[in-house]
Write a structure and sequence with these properties.
About 20% of the residues lie in helices and about 10% in strands. It is an alpha+beta fold and about 70 residues long. It has a two-stranded antiparallel sheet with strand order 1-2.
Length: about 70
């Protein structure tokens, strides 16, 4: 799940509401490999394997996700 988020005014946070996999296979693979994930416009191109309902429920249209590395 997303542990922290920042959203535009009026847009729900994805924090703790959905597993990362709901935002697509590509998102999960990139984050697990330590790389950031971006989605420019989910209304035009939904990431592969993404759950459309997760994007719609949160009002997410664009997304930047960055993995946090703990030592």
């Amino acid at each position: 799940t997303f542990l922290g988020s920042d959203a535009a005014p009026g847009v729900s946070s994805a924090e703790g509401r959905f597993p990362v996999s709901a935002f697509g296979v590509v998102a999960l693979e990139r984050l697990r490999s330590g790389q950031p994930f971006t989605c420019n416009d989910a209304t035009i191109v939904l990431p592969e394997g993404a759950d459309r309902d997760a994007y719609l429920a949160t009002g997410i249209r664009a997304l930047i996700a960055v993995p946090v590395h703990k030592n």
